[in-house]
Design brief:
heterodimer, A: 332 residues, alpha+beta, Rossmann fold, OB fold (Dihydrolipoamide Acetyltransferase, E2P), 2 domains, six-stranded mixed beta sheet, five-stranded antiparallel beta sheet, 9 helices, 18 strands, 32% strand, elongated, B: 271 residues, mainly alpha, MetI-like fold, 11 helices, globular
């Protein structure tokens, strides 16, 4: 099956800065794909390469098998939901949504009907006469979504789509985007720096760092079996274990990772327990996160709410199942 | 303690402000009064009598019409040239980065910062050096130097306030460069352009210094008025013309002020 988007050895350099470097990536048709990474990691540049706002310095990009280099943004069957929504302030909501159809020369009655339908799809029926300035952030986001979807793109690109929304709204939109994507069957590619968002929404996640992809995989793979220290550190809050520590407990001299919920804090130190001092306690609601200092190493442990929680400065011991240590590919 | 203290200024300040405003605006009122005086040789106060005959006299003077028509044509063409060049320049400076961008920005604004007499002398020597005869077009060139600045300043401010992703959004939705300009860029900068254009028109319409150096034998309205003052002949005619000029230039400037003041919502980005 032809991938929706395919990157082969793609590079985009800005002078000496390698925003994207030697990147290989296949995004399957109908997939909900997340590009996750810190700012400046090249994820947004990748999105702009697909949209056509940037041209690759080297390599080839194809969209559903068609070469995309040199094709201007307005001739690509790809639409973008911008981070700041970029709604046209001089047009009302309905004309904003109908804009793509208007410039394609579709008749007024037909395009306004399609725009109404798109607004209904994003649960904003009847908002057509308003100006973008009269809408809330969440509503603007939906209008931007409708404006892109009305063109029936093959690939929908979303640039930090939920970044400007508050927490509650963000959670609602996450679910809505996901069900919308399943219903429409369009390939969604979205860029985010929020690992929670990437893990909860995407079918597959690519973790970016310094213009390269560190790891691609399902949210479970990324979270449970990170390949490198960077991925372990960036995705979730896994503890990164240095080779010496891993050798002692898992028998191999490799970098390892250990998830906070795999660490059990115990009162009385058995012979396999590790001594530590509590240097921080943060209450997170469903769990309490402890910061433990041991052997010059700082580890996070997650204690479920309801169990007894030690206080800051307490000497404690902790154990963990040795199998819970995940060995990373990265060489020591 | 008085609650309205912040709203009430001391008496001395009030008097000073009133005097300042009177000093600025009384002479303009005098022009209106002298337009209706019966004394035609000198400015005599108080006017010996009032008459409206000068309106008719002015109406029938062909030299007034010639000067007025030249001024209107010069202002219109200079404004048009300024709107095209100023917008293009503003777009280039605010939309892209290139070597010498700041220098270009400074050089465009320079003509309005320089004394008009310098611009005038420079243009005159340039024209004589290249043997361009003085004509309608040399006046237009002279005026365009400062008209461009006004349009440029207005357009640049609007471009800065307009989110750059609007243009990308338009491309993304399938509009080519021309469609994007027509449906997105132009509607967003239209009021700024109109305001800039009106200011440019008003500036060109009453410009004297640069015009003196670039006009040759032709007389724009302000130059004609200057000449009339030197050769007194039906003096109140000058005042009638001055009155008309005040009205003609005041209206577009007021309009420009209101247009740019309300423009905030038009150009706000999607945030």
């Amino acid at each position: 099956m032809t991938p929706a988007v395919s990157f082969q050895k793609v590079a985009r350099h800005f002078g000496a800065v390698k925003a994207v470097d030697a990147l290989d990536l296949d995004i399957a048709a109908g997939e909900f794909f997340a590009m996750l990474g810190p700012s400046g990691s090249g994820k947004t540049t990748c999105l702009r390469l697909i949209a056509g706002f940037e041209q690759p310095t080297a390599g080839t990009i194809s969209i559903f098998g068609e070469r995309a280099e040199g094709v201007p943004p307005y001739r690509r069957n790809v639409n973008t939901v911008f981070q700041d929504y970029a709604l046209f302030p001089h047009l009302n909501v309905l004309d904003n949504v109908a804009y793509g159809l208007m410039v394609k020369g579709i008749g007024k009655a037909e395009r306004l009907k399609a725009a109404e339908e798109a607004l209904a799809l994003v649960q904003l029926p009847g908002y057509g006469a308003r100006r973008p300035a009269q809408l809330s952030g969440g509503q603007r986001q939906r209008v931007a979504l409708a404006r892109a979807l009305v063109n029936q793109p093959k690939v929908l690109l979303l640039d930090e789509p939920l970044g400007a929304l508050d927490l509650k709204l963000r959670e609602n939109m996450q679910e809505e985007l996901k069900s919308l994507q399943k219903a429409l069957g369009i390939t969604f590619v979205f860029v985010t720096h929020d690992q929670g968002e990437a893990l909860s929404m995407a079918d597959r996640v690519a973790v970016f760092n310094e213009g390269r992809i560190m790891q691609v995989g399902s949210p479970q793979e990324i979270y449970q079996r990170p390949k490198t220290r960077f991925v372990a550190d960036f995705v979730g809050s896994s503890n990164v274990l240095p080779p010496d520590f891993v050798q002692r407990y898992a028998g191999q001299r490799r970098w390892g990772s250990l998830r906070p919920e795999a660490i059990r804090v115990v009162r009385d130190a058995g012979n396999d327990a590790v001594q530590a001092r509590v240097s921080g306690v943060s209450y997170l609601g469903a769990a309490t996160r402890l910061t433990l200092d041991t052997e010059g190493l700082r580890l996070h442990a997650s204690v479920p709410s309801g169990s007894t929680v030690p206080e800051q400065g307490d000497a404690v011991a902790f154990t963990f199942n040795r199998d819970a240590i995940h060995l990373m590919d990265e060489a020591p | 303690m008085r609650s309205d203290r912040s709203q009430s200024a001391p008496l001395g300040l009030k008097i000073a402000a009133t005097c300042g405003l009177l000093f600025l605006h009384l002479p303009i009122l005098l022009i209106f009064v002298y337009a209706f005086t019966t004394e035609e040789k000198s400015y005599q106060w108080p006017p010996p009598g009032l008459t409206t005959q000068w309106l008719a006299v002015t109406w029938n003077r062909p030299d007034v019409w010639e000067a007025l028509s030249l001024s209107v044509r010069v202002a219109a063409i200079s404004t048009l040239v300024a709107m095209i060049l100023g917008t293009l320049c503003a777009a280039a400076v605010s939309r892209s980065r290139f070597f010498g961008r700041e220098a270009v920005s400074l050089l465009v604004i320079l003509p309005i910062a320089l004394p008009g007499i310098i611009t005038g002398i420079a243009l005159r020597s340039a024209f004589s050096l290249t043997e361009i005869p003085f004509s309608f077009w040399t006046i237009v060139l002279g005026h365009a130097t400062f008209c461009v600045v006004v349009v440029y300043n207005n357009a640049v401010a609007r471009f800065r306030r307009t989110s750059g992703s609007l243009i990308e959004a338009s491309y993304d939705l399938g509009a080519d460069g021309f469609q994007t300009f027509r449906h997105v860029v132009l509607p967003n900068i239209a009021t700024a352009l109109l305001a800039g254009g009106m200011l440019a028109f008003a500036l060109s319409f009453d410009e004297v210094i640069v015009t003196t150096f670039t006009a040759g034998q032709q007389q724009t309205l302000p130059i004609w008025m200057l000449e009339e003052l030197i050769r007194p002949r039906q003096r109140p005619v000058t005042n009638v013309v001055a009155m008309v000029v005040v009205l003609v230039t005041l209206l577009p400037i007021l309009l420009a002020y209101y247009l740019t003041r309300d423009g905030d919502q038009v150009a706000g980005s999607g945030k």
